[in-house]
Write a structure and sequence with these properties.
The chain is mainly α. The protein has a single domain, classed as CDP-alcohol phosphotransferase transmembrane (TM) domain (Four Helix Bundle (Hemerythrin (Met), subunit A)). 77% of the residues lie in helices and 2% in strands. It is built from ten helices and two strands, in the order αααααβαααβαα. It has a two-stranded antiparallel sheet. α4 packs parallel to α6.
Length: 262
């Protein structure tokens, strides 16, 4: 009887890997963010930027994987925010300070701190909204308030990526980098509505066109990494004003429908 009870206790203590898999993805993203700082200290700029992008890629998966596996938790959400602060707030700021804005002295350090503080405030606001969990229309769930932290990091790193793709050092000018850091920080804490990936819907069945597009994108990233990233970032920047317009238009249409129903 004692042996059977002992075996039952041991079985209860076993945790399926699916339960911790989303956390593993978050920790991997965090490690890549830390490694980005190490590469920046070693002046290996391209590898530092690549690590930030890998962190962004992993960050886009951990939440989705947790929801798919039914393993969403407050612990995972808090860990994800701490990881995001390092990967998309601290790492890009240090990377750009060491590469460019150190020439501005205290002003350069101040703008880097401003960017990191904005990232922290954006993540804190996101967590507060998630905890309150106030009901809102389904169409509003397809928009972010402000741009997400990974997008903020990518926009801040845009001058460096332009330098990699073109070879021109003018993009490393500390004034240009400072402007990108400032704009990115402001966009993160702003109340502008930006489109989320929830707006991308794949039809049921064999999505041949979507798979072909993804395959083409992967090929471009492998063969022309920096040029492809430049195009993708430029396209995302264009979607920001379009998202603001689309949200305002949809909100107006929904308010008209609500008045008609009431």
């Amino acid at each position: 009887m004692d042996i059977i009870e002992t075996e039952n206790i041991q079985q209860k203590k076993k945790v399926p890997f699916a339960r911790i898999f989303p956390t593993v993805i978050t920790i991997a993203a965090f490690c890549f963010g830390m490694t980005s700082i190490r590469f920046a200290l070693s002046h290996r700029w391209e590898m530092a930027v690549v690590c930030v992008f890998i962190s962004a890629l992993l960050d886009s998966f951990d939440g989705r994987v947790a929801r798919m596996l039914g393993q969403s938790s407050q612990f995972g959400a808090e860990l994800d925010s701490l990881s995001d602060l390092v990967c998309f707030g601290v790492a890009p700021a240090l990377l750009l300070f060491f590469r460019s804005v150190y020439a501005l002295g205290n002003v350069g350090w101040g703008i880097c701190m401003f960017f990191t503080v904005c990232c922290a405030l954006r993540l804190a606001r996101f967590n507060a909204v998630q905890i309150l969990n106030e009901p809102k229309p389904e169409w509003q769930k397809k928009y972010f308030t402000g741009i997400p932290a990974p997008a903020g990091a990518i926009i801040a790193l845009f001058p460096l990526i332009l330098h990699f793709s073109t070879g021109k050092t003018c993009f490393l000018n500390e004034k240009i980098v400072t402007i990108c850091l400032f704009i990115s920080g402001v966009l993160m804490i702003s109340t502008v509505k930006s489109m989320s990936s929830k707006m991308i819907e794949i039809k049921n069945g064999f999505a041949s066109q979507e798979l072909l597009l993804i395959s083409f994108l992967i090929i471009c990233l492998i063969t022309e990494l920096w040029l492809t990233l430049t195009v993708l970032i430029a396209l995302y920047i264009i979607t920001i004003p379009y998202g603001i317009y689309k949200y305002a238009k949809t909100a107006k249409e929904e308010s008209v429908v609500f008045k008609q129903v009431s």
